[in-house]
Amino acid sequence: MAQKEDIVFPKGFLWGTATAAHQIEGGTTNNNWWLFEKEGTIKNNDSALVACDHWNRFKQDFDLLKKLNCNAYRMSIEWSRIFPQPGTLDKKALDHYVTMINELLKRKITPFVTLFHFTLPIWWCNEGGLLNRDKEHLEHFKQFCDVVAKTLKGKVKFYNTINEPSIVMLGYITGTSAPGQKNMLKAIKALGTTMLMHAIAYHTIKSVDPDAKVGIVHNVQITKPYNPNSIMDKLFTAFADYCFNGAIIRSLKKGKLPLQIFSSHRELINTNDFIGVNFYNFIRLSLRLKDLAVPATDNPVCGKKGLCVSLGWEPYPEGFYLAIKLMHNAFSHIPMYITENGIGTNDDSWRQRVLIDHLKMLHKAITEGVDIRGYFYWSIIDNFEWEHGYEPRFGLVHVDFKTQKRTIKHSGMVYAQIAKSNALPATILKKFPEEIYKPQF
Ligand code: BGC
Hints:
This protein is of the alpha/beta class and 441 residues long. The protein has 15 helices and 15 strands. The strands form four sheets. Strands 2-3-4-5-6-8-11-12 form an eight-stranded parallel barrel, surrounded by five helices. The chain has a three-stranded mixed β-sheet with strand order 7-9-10. Strands 1-15 form a two-stranded antiparallel ribbon.
């Protein structure tokens, strides 16, 4: 029974976890990330060749979801598996995804399906990838969305079109993610194409299945000036904030491609039945430093304790609240789902604290009237963390990558308790009595 001190979430709230095909399935060797990995670009020379072998172990992993009392799960369908060649459908791969969805439904877990989570078929990239906006080229993506929506109609109600357009753009700026380029003009073009693909996915799914709920996933990046007293740092930070957040929001609201002066794409307007929000950390920016974006963890509070290993991401629970508010102000007329939130750390008690601090902020936003209907922790299992390889561990469940053995972490047990009671129970809150964690800017 609920206690007076419990922080209770709205009835019917979805408690889930999120993953992406390439990061867990193994064997996704028909996409651009695989090419990128083969160039030796990944930390420790890791690759996603085997990853968590989820393609073969999905039933075991869905049982883990059940053990964690999850009633929702966000996964992606790998385009390069369904269409390994242009126009050639791999029926076996499609059936495999249908089996996965059926297994989720059997366990009474609501699936959210993402159509583009960072990976693209090699053949499509050879035809220009995100830098080609020809109608016939984009038709291939439409065909993929059409096949998925027709196949999953009646089984899947929620679709995420694109995962994090602004992060896709980074693959053309920093050179550290696929396709590993450093060209601002190309980055702007790729971002624009990604937004057009969102509109294509939205309209295609809705024409097949008008009852489906479709929405993009935006990663809200909170930016801070490296030196709060420097006008240059502040200006640069405001510009970066616009590139990461403002331009995406404007694109969806006004039908303009991000960072492009002359563009009008009315097909982008009203293309979200809900908005997906991912939130992880903040970055500090300065034009004067070698690396424009400074890892938050040269901040002594978090950095010295080694809590945010490998990625250098410092949590910022209040930033989560700000991110939610930002998106709510822009899209107050539609529901919101937190489609990703988590931390890569080897210190599981730190993960628990960070989780609880973020959920408190989420609850605060709900009590202030934001219509948030679900939360997806990233991730159920430790997995392939893109250019950082297997080092950052985001899972609620530990994976031994040598044996593929899964072991539920304490944070997993805490999450299971939260999901079961649809609340932050007083018993858990008492274990973490400190103030919300505040970074020092
Ligand atoms: C991405 C995930 C990734 C996570 C942690 C998000 O930006 O959608 O694929 O694993 O961040 O880095």
